[in-house]
Design brief:
- The complex is a heterodimer of chains A (285) and B (831).
- Chain A folds into three domains: 47 residues, Uridine Diphospho-n-acetylenolpyruvylglucosamine Reductase, domain 2 (2-Layer Sandwich), CATH 3.30.43; 115 residues, Uridine Diphospho-n-acetylenolpyruvylglucosamine Reductase, domain 3, CATH 3.30.465.10; 104 residues, CO dehydrogenase flavoprotein, C-terminal domain (Enolase-like, domain 1).
- Chain A contains twelve helices and 15 strands.
- In chain A, the strands form four sheets. Chain A has a five-stranded antiparallel β-sheet. In chain A, strands 11, 12, 13, 14 and 15 form a five-stranded antiparallel β-sheet that branches.
- In chain A, helix 11 packs antiparallel against helix 12.
- Chain B folds into four domains: 200 residues, Aldehyde Oxidoreductase, domain 3 (Alpha-Beta Complex); 173 residues, Aldehyde Oxidoreductase, domain 4 (2-Layer Sandwich), CATH 3.30.365.10; 213 residues, Aldehyde oxidase/xanthine dehydrogenase, molybdopterin binding domain (Aldehyde Oxidoreductase, domain 4); 147 residues, Aldehyde Oxidoreductase, domain 4 (2-Layer Sandwich), CATH 3.30.365.
- Chain B is built from 24 helices and 28 strands.
- In chain B, helix 17 packs parallel to helix 18.
- The radius of gyration of chain B is 28 Å and the shape is globular.
- Classes of the chains: A alpha+beta (285), B alpha+beta (831).
- The structure holds flavin-adenine dinucleotide (FAD).
- Flavin-adenine dinucleotide binds next to strand 2, helix 7 and strand 10 of chain A.
């Protein structure tokens, strides 16, 4: 469990970091909390020439209020996310999902941005970001750009981040109206990744479900929105029957993998059950 | 204290045996302030890395070591060819039948590889990093052969061969027939006459011992002497075996097991890496170290279980059992290691469980496959047997429409029937199955849970409840040497101890039973504190070094207290006998007139006389005033060879919730009452039960070593090989009944394996009880949510899992962690 030799840079600003990435040679890896990167390097599944460690870049850390959105620095750790008051107020779903991530030690080092940039289909936060319509602020030597969540997750472990680019922060739009949220995660042992999970946001209006947003974890190479379920939950009676009927659409358009934890058809089934459960809780039923 | 002072202990001191002493060894183990093998640093020490086969079955056609040899820091690189003349074979000490086929097990493969992870080359370098860096520079060409993975196919017509120099995939066929042995009737006749026969095929999946401390070896050559430190359970056996393999004379070889971080049978082995370290140290004359990574451990340390069991049970309609017939396929993996064939054979005597079968037949075939060898794993043969009997009793109860507990009660040995000789020929020593069961039912709150189960069924609740039983026994205290001899095992089963009385009255206890986490230091101190009447704190227990404890047979098979502790008691008796003679001399009394109590000798009827054994130790050291003709020592040594096994038993009850929508199972409540005989330290006993339960439950619910169609171990990291943590396990309600074991002076029966043996069938029976009314009669272990869901909604036993590893860590599995990836590799984008 010894990684191959690599050069190491520890910048203190975003600009320095971008420079370090640009000058790091052929194969540069950005390191956030290292909780996904280091194991892969120790198993020698990755052998980068240079590792650029972001832990000392203070401006990447923390959560701020930016009017119609809250902004989470990419290097904000999972444990800081869990205890953050702005997140608790505006996007408690993120904290709820983050609490299911790994164990205390991993959450102490692992970061929100690192988890999103890693884009593991079994990771819990991408589907949450997708359901919240998060926006990803990306910096490169040429300047900054903002990518909506729907375009950020491109493929298995692949995002819109181009070579040399850095994920800087994630903007979470504040939600107007009355929203209930729930993250329903299914795994075999505590501290494990999701076999399937469902992030549900439901806006209710006087006993009716006005709209819903459903994010699916591990139902394909990228996180997905269950648009069939969402369509079935526009302005409907908030009843167990309507939720159950809508949840039947959860597997539409998904392409889950078959692995030790479950074959594709089982995952499709799980998506429906978990969607029903997630929406039921989010709708306060 | 002077000789005339009134003894302090006018009232008897508090007994140590039975006290929940905190463990002496824990502070250093928990804080890590101790020497593990991997902490060893010796001047000039070189580091080894092992290059492992990425393919399951192939001829080695070419080996190119040049690039690796030229890598920075590399001292030498060896292939199997380099060791071919001196590496011999990893020994198999248990030829279970006279015609057992042993294909031979080179430490480093020479011509052929037979499992993924098999050693194919060794790098020796100045640093661990340099050694690791050179691994990927070794270039080996393989000519792939068909892979043998499935035992049922391996014994079928036209099967591919695992070893082409032997003519089948069968290593042995071991049969025990009660009719032939004279311990029961004719089994075929019993089945022919039976009113009811139930037949089932059970699968004991392959599991991995997964000890906490990875294996590690250091060898230091000094002149023609060698010292080996190893993370092993068996320094004594290892020494003998290494001497035989390498030709280093036994007296020139010292083996030390320093603190060892768990083993569960996984370190009851003579490993290829231990042999390799010896050979390299001998060749280079330099100290060497090898420590495995977790992925190496999972793919190359021996695995456990892995049986297919065809079980037939015969009974009359009233539920009186008439016969039991067990046909077993036991997966040996690619080679035979130390006791690979003996593991299922040990089980041969336990399939009848606690029941009075008039007829019994056991027929086991050991099969080769292209997987890592199997060998001892906590319980070794007995969990497999217990699973089969406790599962088939439930199946018979269903067939007879009888309460599973009533069926058991009808057939189990009654308290007044002990000692009882079973159809398997074992004489069970003591116990009361009814009493343990009653207590367990109360602990569980059985009636209330049964009522809840009915309510949930009636309301068609998506979460169903079930209750599972396991009324088990096991054979412990391995083992009477004569019995081992009759089974062709290569060693005896005695244990040795000695006691040294130091001048200041402190006591050194030397034990041949080598702990690796069990708490020998604490328990042995308690034994000696009571026997000699010295303070618990005054006793030091020494172990695990063939130079310090020269005679011993180490730790496995719940033998340490029962056999090793008994040797300590015998040695203590001898110390007291010698001290008595000295005391009589000093007190000017005759030996017969001396009372020994609370550590002091006093002359009966003469108050005020008193001489403590600790004072006698000083007097012995001085030897100024000693009995004529007595050598000045009260130290003693004893070797204890049991005449019989001991038979702990217990009733384990599991209440299980099954979410029928997802297949998720959750243990609602777990209660067990174990009879482990006299309890020396209740805290240690409870700890052993908890740990055993965790492992037994883990086999039922979580753990499985999965190979894909190419023979890659896809559960290659702890992400995919699921070991539960405390967070995944329920609270355990535990209790004890006490029936002293008659076979040893302590009265203890052994507890190291009980929880692991008993719990697995209780858990599976509970899950089945929850969903039996939905048409489910079996679910393969581990009971993954997917399997449970499939069994409920699609019928069958849940079926095989997809073999692909999950994508976490970019899909680490042996095809990648062995250092080479194949085209079929499903690696993540991080590569
Ligand atoms: C035992 C264990 C259990 C876990 N369980 C879970 C779980 O249940 N659920 C879950 O969701 N996750 C789980 N994880 C993963 C955990 O959440 C990781 O922390 C997370 O996925 C990666 O975050 P990190 O900050 O450690 O990123 P790193 O490992 O440092 O980086 C991950 C990847 O993202 C890239 N990267 C990181 N930051 C940036 C950036 N700012 N810009 C561009 N690229 C960047 C890196 O180059 C790398 O490729 C677990 C991890 C462990 C070790």
């Amino acid at each position: 469990m010894i990684p191959a030799a690599f050069a190491y840079a520890r910048p203190t600003t975003i600009d320095e970091a971008l420079q370090a990435v640009a000058s790091g040679g052929e194969d540069v890896k950005i390191m956030a909390g290292g909780q996904s990167l280091i194991p892969v390097m120790r198993l020698r599944l990755a052998a980068p020439e240079t590792v650029v460690d972001l832990t000392k870049v203070a401006e990447l850390r923390g959560v701020r209020d930016d009017g119609d959105a809250i902004v989470i620095g990419a290097m904000t750790t999972h444990s800081d996310v869990i205890s953050d008051p702005l997140i608790a107020q505006h996007a408690p779903l993120i904290a709820e999902a983050t609490e299911t991530v790994a164990d205390r030690q991993v959450r102490h080092r692992g970061t929100f941005g690192g988890a999103l940039a890693h884009a593991d289909p079994a990771g819990d936060l991408p589907a949450v970001a997708l359901a919240l319509d998060a926006e990803f602020v990306i910096a490169g030597l040429g300047g900054r750009r903002t990518v909506p969540a729907a375009e950020f997750f491109v493929d298995y472990l692949t995002t819109a981040l181009a070579e040399g680019e850095l994920l800087v922060e994630i903007r979470i739009p504040k939600l107007p109206g009355t929203w209930g949220m729930h993250y329903e995660k299914f795994n075999r042992v505590a501290q494990a990744w999701s076999i399937v999970a469902v992030a549900a946001l439901v806006r209710t209006e006087g006993g009716r479900i006005a709209e819903a947003r459903i994010g699916l974890t591990n139902m394909g190479p990228t996180p997905l929105r269950a648009s069939g379920v969402e369509a079935a939950l526009v302005d409907v009676e908030a009843t167990a029957e309507s939720v159950a009927a809508a949840a039947e659409h959860a597997a539409e358009g998904t392409s889950p993998s078959s692995d030790l934890n479950g074959q594709a058809d089982y995952r499709e089934h799980l998506a429906k059950v978990l969607t029903r459960r997630a929406v039921t809780v989010a709708a306060g039923l | 204290m002077t000789l005339v002072e009134e003894p302090v202990a006018a009232q008897a001191p508090e007994a140590e045996i039975g006290k929940a002493r905190l463990r002496k060894e824990d502070a250093r183990l928990i804080t890590g302030k101790t020497t593990w093998t991997d902490n060893m640093v010796l001047p000039g020490m070189l580091h080894l890395a092992v290059v492992r086969s990425p393919v399951a079955h192939a001829k080695i056609t070419n080996v190119d070591l040049t690039a690796a040899q030229q890598a920075p820091g590399v001292i030498a690189v060896y292939s199997g060819r380099d060791f071919a003349d001196e590496q011999g074979s990893i020994p198999c000490a248990w030829p279970v039948t006279p015609d057992m086929v042993n294909p031979g097990h080179p430490s480093v493969a020479v011509e052929e590889v037979n499992h993924v992870g098999e050693a194919v080359a060794v790098i020796v370098a100045r640093s661990k990093t340099a050694a690791q860096d050179a691994v990927e520079l070794v270039d080996i060409d393989y000519d792939p052969l068909p892979v043998v993975l499935d035992m049922e196919k391996a014994v079928g017509q036209d099967a591919h061969l695992c070893h082409d120099h032997i003519d089948s995939n069968e290593s042995f066929n071991f049969v025990f027939d009660a009719g032939e042995a004279g311990t029961g009737g004719n089994t075929e006749q019993a089945f022919a006459d039976a009113e009811v026969v139930v037949s089932r095929r059970f699968v004991q999946q392959r599991v991995i011992p997964a000890f906490m401390e990875p294996r590690s070896v250091v060898v230091q050559p000094q002149g023609d002497n060698y010292t080996m430190w190893a993370a092993t359970q068996i320094p004594h056996i290892l020494r003998v075996m290494l001497a035989m393999i390498t030709g280093v004379p036994e007296h020139k070889l010292r083996v030390i097991a320093p603190d060892v971080g768990g083993g569960f049978g996984g370190k009851l082995q003579v490993t290829p890496e231990e042999v390799i370290c010896m050979l390299v140290a001998r060749r280079l004359g330099k100290p060497v170290k090898w420590t495995e990574t977790r992925s190496e451990s999972l793919m190359s340390a021996h695995h456990g279980r892995d049986q297919i069991q065809y079980i037939d049970i015969a009974s009359d309609r009233e539920g009186n059992v008439k016969g039991l017939r067990c046909r077993i396929l036991a997966d040996m993996g690619a080679y035979l290691r130390l006791v690979s064939p003996g593991v299922p054979v040990l089980g041969a005597f336990m399939f009848v469980g606690i029941y009075k079968f008039p007829a019994y037949r056991f027929d086991c075939r050991g099969i080769f496959t292209n997987k890592v060898p199997t060998d001892a794993y906590r319980g070794a043969g007995r969990p497999e047997a217990t699973f089969a009997i406790e599962r088939i009793m439930d199946e018979l109860a269903v067939e007879l429409d009888m309460d599973p507990l009533e069926l058991r009660r009808k057939n189990w040995i009654k308290a007044e029937e002990f000692p009882f000789t079973t159809a398997a020929g074992l004489e069970y020593d003591s116990g009361d199955y009814e009493q343990a069961t009653q207590q367990a039912l109360e602990l569980l709150g059985y009636d209330e849970l049964r009522a809840e189960q009915r309510r949930r069924r009636e309301s068609n609740d998506p979460v169903q409840l079930g209750i599972g039983f396991s009324t088990f026994t096991e054979m412990c205290g391995l083992a009477p040497s004569r019995v081992l001899g009759s089974l062709a095992y290569g060693a005896g089963g005695w244990e040795n101890a000695s006691i040294r009385m130091l001048p200041t009255g402190k006591v050194e206890v030397v034990t041949g039973s080598t702990p690796h986490g069990q708490g020998h230091e604490t328990a042995w101190s308690q034994l000696v504190a009571d026997s000699l009447g010295v303070p618990f704190e005054d006793v030091e227990v020494l172990h695990g070094d063939t130079a310090i404890s020269p005679r011993g047979l180490d730790t496995y098979g719940s033998r340490s207290l029962v056999v090793g502790g008994a040797a300590v008691m015998k040695a203590a008796d001898k110390v007291v006998a010698k001290a008595r003679r000295v005391a009589a001399h000093l007190l000017e009394a005759s030996e017969e007139d001396l009372d020994f109590s609370g550590g002091s000798f006093s002359v009966r009827g003469t108050p005020g006389t008193g001489l403590s054994i600790q004072e006698i130790a000083l007097a012995t050291f001085a030897a100024h005033n000693f009995p004529d003709g007595m050598e000045p020592s009260i130290d003693a040594e004893a070797t204890f060879d049991p005449v019989n096994f001991s038979f702990p038993h217990g009733t384990h009850l599991c209440a299980m919730e099954v979410d029928t929508e997802t297949g998720m199972v959750k243990i609602r409540k777990y209660a067990c009452v174990d009879d482990v005989g006299i309890v020396v330290n209740p805290l240690i006993v409870e700890g052993q039960v908890h740990g055993g339960l965790a492992q037994g439950i883990a086999q039922a619910l979580y753990e499985e070593a999965v190979y894909d169609a190419d023979g890659n171990l896809t559960t290659g990291t702890f992400v995919d090989y699921l070991v539960p943590s405390a967070a995944d396990l329920p609270h355990f309600d535990t209790g004890n009944t006490v029936h002293a074991a008659p076979g040893n002076p302590i009265g203890a029966k052994g507890v190291g394996e009980a929880g692991c043996i008993a719990s697995t069938p209780a858990v599976v029976n509970a899950a089945l009880d929850a969903v039996r009314h939905l048409g489910v009669s079996d679910i393969l272990m581990p009971l993954t949510p997917e399997r449970v869901w499939r069994a409920i909604h699609q019928g069958g036993d849940g079926g095989d899992r997809a073999t692909a590893g999950t994508n976490a860590y970019g899909g680490a599995q042996t095809e990648t962690t062995a250092g080479v990836s194949t085209d079929a590799s499903s690696l993540g984008g991080d590569r």
